[in-house]
Amino acid sequence: MLSAIFANAQQSYNITFTHDSITVFGTFTVPSAAGRFPTIIIDPGSGDIDRDGTIQFFDGNSACIYPGLYGKTIKMYKELADAFVDSGYAVLRYDKLEYTYAPGNLGALTFHKLWLPVESAIDYVKTRTDVDTNNIILIGHSEGSTMIPYIAKNRNDVKALISLAGARTPFDSLVAWQYNQLYQLLEPCGATFSDSLYLANLARQTLDYFHVIRTNWNQNTPDYAGVPAASWYDYIVANDEVADNYNQVNLPTLFIGLGLDLNVPPSELVRFQQDVTITDDFWSLAGLVHYCCTPDVAHVSEEVPHTIVYWLRQHNIQTSVKPISCFNENWLNVSPNPFSSSISIKTEQVITGKSSMAIYDVYGKRILMKELHVSKNEYTETIDLSYLPDGIYFLEASSGNYRTLEKIVKN
Asked: Residue 119: which residues within 8 A CB-CB, separation 6 or more?
């Protein structure tokens, strides 16, 4: 059963699909034009998250950790979906089962049921006549980053993978780190020594439980967070092997880290870079927290969807629909690339409005920022970068409604 809602040259359908005999509720959004579209499926992070990725910063912890977001709400998956559809892609996002159903209404809690609804989501989109079934892309946010290579390595119908704020560190070690990090974040707001002991105890219990899961669990091993030990064992196998899974599936893959992420630290991007050998695309977006926004604006930063769309186009995963947004990577030419000491930038079309460019290293640190004083239709400038070490960098430039992001290499 479908109900259509029209907004911003998009069509949004409230849809359902079945996963392990359970009904999953979601939204499928597509450009309001005829055609078959490359389709993005968003695999969400942990917790009882709805299809919009709604996060409310209303509690006391938020007031301390994110004072600039306190009292606000972000719908990160909806905003990402809207941006992707504006660029010509279809998007499926869905409510997690934990959001829709009480645990007692889900039957046996298996690894497949709880963590792999994306498998059924792929099957669903392949039934639609508006989906280009040769171009299905999985975006895994946070915990979803662990699941997408596990799913893709057992299928032949996934075109590309995108890890957004994903972790290489095993689940239990990351959770233990988060407990300890939480005390440090809350201490300036009045957290006490007893709070520290409580959180340290939770961290130790988590590590102890999953040590048992990895070594000698049995049918008598108790549940953790309401999930049986057998399901956690299957989860840990997939989680521990996440880097190997990305290597084995060997698809075009983009890893994005967020520079101010307090849930999955930026060092996780470095860990992936050390262990994943099938891609050189490890990009860090400076100034963003785990929810794809800045610490004081409760909206997804346009840098996230623009980076992803740019990467998809570079890997020839394109759409015939002209983007509604003014993202355009062709207005500026950069040469030579690779370069040894300097680059030349040249405008390729009429430019209006303020122009600027910046260069970042692979960890998102800004190295250079300058205005471009464009006063005519064609503009050329040579920029000395001889002082940079050899390596990969990213040049971001904007002028009026135009924007480009390009990987450049010094050797």
From this structure: 19, 112, 151, 155
At the topology level, CATH places domain 332-410 in Immunoglobulin-like (2.60.40)
Chain Cα centroid distance, residue 183: 26
DSSP secondary structure string for all residues of 215-233: HT--TTSPPBTTB-HHHHH
Rounded Cα distance between 249 and 246, Å, is 5
The full set of domain ranges for the chain reads 4-174+238-314, 332-410
Angle between helices 117-125 and 144-152 (to 10 degrees): 60
Domain 4-174+238-314 has CATH 3.40.50.1820: yes
Give the DSSP H or E segment for 206. Answer: helix 193-215
Residue 232 class from Cβ within 10 Å (0-12 exposed, 13-18 middle, 19+ buried)? buried
**What pTM, to 2 d.p., does this model score?**
0.81
- How far apart (Å, rounded) are the C-alpha atoms in residues 43 and 161? 11
Record the tokens describing residue 367, joined without a space.
């190295």
Phi, psi of 240 (to 5 degrees): -65, -30
**Spatial separation of the C-alpha atoms in residues 94 and 111, rounded to whole Å:** 18
Q: Token digits for 26?
A: 């979601």
- Read off the pLDDT of residues 251-275 as tens digits, 9 standing for 90 and up: 999 999 999 999 999 999 999 999 9
* Cβ atoms of residues 40 and 92 within 8 Å: yes
Q: Which residues pair with 347 in a beta bridge?
A: 332
Integer angstrom CA distances of residue 53 from 49, 74, 75, 187:
6, 8, 5, 28
Q: Which secondary-structure segment (H or E) carries 319?
A: none
